[in-house]
Amino acid sequence: MSYFPEVEKINYEGPETKNMFAFRHYNAEEEVMGKKMKDHLRFAIAYWHTMTQDGSDPFGDPINQRTWFGKTPMETAKNRVEAFFEICQKLGAEYFCFHDVDIAPQGDSLQEFYDNLDEITDLIKEKMDQTGIKLLWNTANMFSHPRFTNGAASTNNADVFAYAAAQIKKGLDLSKKLGGENYVFWGGREGYESLLNTNMGFEQDNIARMFKMAIAYGEKIGHKPQFLLEPKPKEPTKHQYDFDAATAMAFIQKYGLEGDFKLNLEANHATLAGHTFEHELNVARQYDALGSMDANQGDVLLGWDTDEFPTNIFDTTLAMYEVLENGGIAPGGINFDAKVRRSSFEMEDLLLAHIAGMDTYARGLKAAAKLKEEHFFDDIKEKRYATFNEGIGKKIVDNEVNLESLTEYALAHDDVQLESSHLEYIKNCLNDYLV
Ligand code: XLS
Ligand code: NI
Ligand code: NI
Description:
By secondary structure, the protein is an alpha/beta fold. The chain has helices at 37-41, 47-52, 73-91, 100-103, 110-131, 158-178, 200-220, 245-254, 267-272, 277-286, 313-325, 348-373, 376-384, 391-397, 403-412, 423-434, and strands at 11-12, 22-23, 31-32, 35-36, 43-46, 95-99, 134-139, 182-186, 191-192, 226-230, 239-240, 261-266, 290-295, 334-336. An 8-stranded parallel beta barrel has the order 5-6-7-8-10-12-13-14, surrounded by 4 helices. A two-stranded parallel ribbon has the order 1-2. Strand 13 (290-295), helix 11 and strand 14 form a beta-alpha-beta unit. Helix 6 packs parallel to helix 7 (200-220) and helix 11 crosses helix 12. The chain is globular. The relative contact order is 0.11. It binds D-xylose and nickel (II) ion (2 copies). The site of one nickel (II) ion has 5 residues, from loops.
């Protein structure tokens, strides 16, 4: 049975097409800088936003009616597998991501949850084998259930810590079963509400303990996905420990996790932290820790994680430029951690929204490749730092100076001449690459 009988496989038809269900810019097999677009972009579909999002908001009841709703939670879960792989196939997305709770009902006990997960992942594995679609990453949802009100690995309650460990262990078992290429930790409730009752150092030590157990377990079962830490500054927790890329790297370094962990960076989390997405990607690159991307966008007028589908080509161009500078994103990918707006409640909107996101990233890739091929930023930066290429500048870079020798130099050259950055001119030229 088909859940989208009216829609054929979505193909590239070019920017002139009037067909809503066609790509206008994403052409999977087309080569950009000697590599297929699909291999640059490694698109993944997020199970949660696509299959379980009901369109509700704090003021509105669920609105999304889906034909995969069944009579029991398990029946719905099974139908979802069918529908999900149809969506991935129709879009030509080769990867997917999920939380444990997205794919199977939790039932009345942890054992029942495990059994449900086993049954559903059998179905998922069958679909993966049939279609060739691969698991980019999975993760454990350790933030929705009331038991995680005070955190998971950072909880004040040891039984909760143990429960979280059991979810992670299962997550790694499922990752092995499905050949997951990465495994994500997003610390939704790993943070605190008030310092009046919080031992921050103790909580962070416990998070590191949990991560080390995850690494050890991966080694034990002979399955080592790339571990990824996903920063976010707030929401749901007021102070989240992995505030941004730099904070997450400080944590990773403090606990000696550099060899095992990279970062999964999300566009909307970057802006919530008061950064641009490209800033976060660039920071990660400085540490050789750019692991994967959660593609979405926030709304400049709203201060929360709106998880909109990315449609801003300025942002995707600068993000893809960082990816090209990184030499690619594999084994990570571009996961659409994005949901349709409440008013886009038809099932077909799930396809249209992904088409928009994929086209926007394709345009970003093409523009970024041109910027790189034409050395647009390289030339600007080369010129801007030119004083370090010779004379005293070169000596600084070669570590041949100290405060005394620089003082001697400065006394003789205190008539400093600056050059204008012509930033407005740069932005004007950059626009030519975007359209
Ligand atoms: C929420 C996060 C979440 C992670 C996976 O804001 O983005 O969806 O990506 O737990
Ligand atoms: Ni995310
Ligand atoms: Ni998010």
